[in-house]
# Entry
Amino acid sequence: MIEIFIKAPESLKKQDQTNVVKRRAGKSTRGRISLLDMKKGFFNFLKDGLNNTERDRRKKLDKAMADAKSARRHLLMESIFEMWDNEGCGFLELDDINSALERFDSSSNAEVIQQTMAELSKEIEISDNRLSKKEFIIYMNLLRQRVAEDYLDRLLDHMKSHLERSAEERRRGEIRKKWLQQVAHAGRLSGISSDPLFKAAFAVIQKDAEAHGKGKKISGSIALLEKNFSHPARGNMLLKYVAATVDDQSHVIGRCLYPDMKGISFQAIESGKPIYVPRVQNHLNVHFWNEDHRVEMKDGSFIAIPLKDRHRNIFGLLGLDTLGDPHEKVTFMSHEITFFQGLGKAISAGYQHVDLRKKTLRIAESAITWIHRRSPSIHETCVYLVEHQLRGADYLLCKMLSTDKNGQIRQYATPEKLRRRENLFRDYLFKCSDDRITVTASAYGDKHTAFPLCNTEGAIIAVIDINLGALVELPQGENREVQRLIKLLNDAHKEVDEDKDDTAVLALEKRNVDSRIDVLFDRLMLLDLRKNVSRLDLRAFAELKSYKYPPKVIHTIIKTVVSMFFDKDVEELENWKICRQYVNPELVRMVTEFDPTGQPSLLSPDQIRQNLKEVPHGAVTKHGSLPAQFLYNWAFVCLSLMEHVEKMGEIVPPRTATATTNTNESGEFQLFSRGSPENTSP
# Structure
């Protein structure tokens, strides 16, 4: 027992340190550890100490030592990668790694390398014979499975000690990596504009040319890859120039490069690798945006570096040249070319961050539009993006979107930035962001509810602030709808964050990839409603069909949905005895399979819109009919998707009614399309 009491304070000290870390991370724990927590920790320690046998303690000790050794090895691999990647390129050549392994032990490593390479190709896709830091660590861990641990440790020590760098090279590498971090950070602080990111990149190019490039003048440009809708005969894609160094902006900004024009840019895009032209004068396939360079025929260098996203899909190009330098035969050195590739990676990471924020706002705009439709009691809604600052500084909340009482959306080109210490009455927003939980509070006389929006890793991305005005809480039905829509918004953002290519469901998404973000939220709502409708059984619809004279709103909803699939006169469907015959499993199948962006409706969007206007908000919920409520929401979502198709100018071919005949109980023939209704006695 003496040994236990001696160790107990150390355990409690660790628990107290854990609480301190939580407080620093913004968790709800305040002050020192409570007496209750201290007692719980102490008795848990006693319980573990008394229950564990010597064998159990030995197993835990061995596991702890193995974990510590693995962690040290992981840090060593990271340090080796950073040492080898002196210029901050972000990749290591696979051939260089294998050469180092063979030099360490050429007799036995050849077969091991071959086996490891075969296993590595199953784990990751090696497209350009280079490995990132994460892939390098995977490669080393796969190698560890085929050799003894002490052998791997000696190999890592060899890789670290046998790479010699001069003091000048190390200093140059440290400076360049610091600059690359500044470029990446500029992307995180750019909001939804990529201009600050591009300006930071060109500033780094200028500083590096002065410090490590012998003062050469470098011209730079950034072009984004877009679909070619204007001149499709010239190629499926084009490069549109969106940024350039100051002296070159008038020559390239807004210009487009097509595949049928001179240049090596599309060669770099097709190969996925940088292409370097050391002497432009001797290269025939060069396109000059600046005609002065063509006339003067200056001899300089040019390099085209593809910009790739995290899935290594190319979305743009970074072009750098020395044609504007007054000296002759100005070329790039090898360490500059390596650094430029690292700069391209930093630009890509920053641009992807900006692009993700743009997509987040587009999805949030769709979501809050639906929130105001479903909950008219809401006074105002605001969307704040979380903007992280430099190390040690607290984050900011940037107000990007807001709505008024009528749901009209306002976007802010220059967003208001909230700091924690300057907005004490809006502390609930920071509380929501810190703890990633829904927070309800009163501020400036109004009731507010803040919802967090997180990515796939659980990090906070945005905060949705819903202002209820003088209301204490939303009506139960509206509150349920808001909770459901916020959940769908989180699902939509996570799908965008994962950035998978196989998520397209609607025909519009498959025809036009660029439209995926605009219809993403509506598509998730449609899929959710499809599931809800498919779960309805015959008993759920029996309630609808049991009405002798149904409420007008329910009759209008059923009439609208039936008219979308069956070619019936409006006057005929006004007769409830006829209309209710179509409420059957066949109608459920049609609803769950219908794609409003690819399958035309027999009812036009204007007619659907007019019918739904006859249903006052909240009237469906009052009647408590679950099938009618699902079908009402489904019709509204279909209408929204049809409007998206109209905005994009796409034409969906009209539906042709396939007529079949059926006889009702009175012996009269009825004309139906796409199937017959269920015959039910009135």
